[in-house]
Specification:
There is one protein chain. With about 190 residues, this protein is of the alpha/beta class. It has one domain: Nucleotidyltransferase, domain 5 (2-Layer Sandwich), CATH 3.30.420. About 30% of the residues lie in helices and about 20% in strands. The protein contains 5 helices and 6 strands. It has a 6-stranded mixed beta sheet. Helix 1 (about 75-90) packs parallel to helix 3 (about 130-140). The longest helix is centred in the last third of the chain and has 19 residues, at about 155-175. The termini are far apart. Mean pLDDT is about 85; it is low at about 1-35.
Length: about 190
């Protein structure tokens, strides 16, 4: 298995919920929300070493993007995807969200949480309940849209976040758990989509 490769279900076993809509990918074109907060979140997990990393880039519409990366040992791919998104939403200003997530099952879960009712007993996640609770609180009552998570373009925020997630995975493997801001000098080189 290569870096970031979790087999057929790239989201990891913790995100595989028993939902009628599990096999379909939620891709909603982002409506014209000029004041929307745009977030690109990516994660990486090495199954053999059980270490992982995450990174996010956020454009609050204030003129310069922000970002953060982190990682830990003894984790799962699902936990890394959740941890990255929760970290991105932690201090995000209120307002509509436009998310670009590489994990389609996570996108469907966020869509469901933002619409209101919680998961049914069959759909409820069994692991990482601490992160799921934080995610539910962060998206409650917000308008959420998704952009297609296709191939990230070179120099774009999705590719940038993926590179930082892989770097975070390597750092966590070597040095243990950490969370750090992505330097502004690196973020200044980003090509944000209009």
């Amino acid at each position: 298995m290569g870096r970031g490769d979790q087999g057929e279900d790239r989201d990891g076993p913790g995100l595989a919920m028993n939902c009628a809509w599990r096999s379909r990918r939620v891709v909603l074109d982002a409506p014209a929300m000029t004041s929307a907060i745009r977030i690109w979140a990516r994660s990486s997990h090495h199954a053999a070493f059980r270490c992982g990393g995450w990174a996010w880039v956020r454009d609050d519409g204030r003129g310069e993007p922000t970002g953060q990366a982190g990682g830990t040992r003894d984790t799962t791919a699902a936990r890394m995807a959740l941890a990255g998104l929760v970290a991105a939403l932690k201090d995000a200003p209120q307002g509509p969200l436009v998310l670009d997530l590489a994990a389609p099952v996570l996108a469907r879960a966020v869509h469901r949480l933002a619409q209101g009712p919680a998961f049914t007993a069959e759909e409820a996640p069994a692991e990482d309940l601490d992160l799921w609770a934080q995610l539910a609180t962060a998206v409650a009552g917000r308008a959420v849209a998704f952009t297609p998570a296709g191939e990230p373009f070179k120099g774009g925020p999705a590719a940038f976040a993926q590179a930082w997630a892989e770097l975070a995975q390597d750092k966590a493997k070597a040095a243990g758990p950490f969370v750090a801001a992505i330097p502004r000098a690196n973020l200044a080189k980003l090509k944000l989509p209009i």
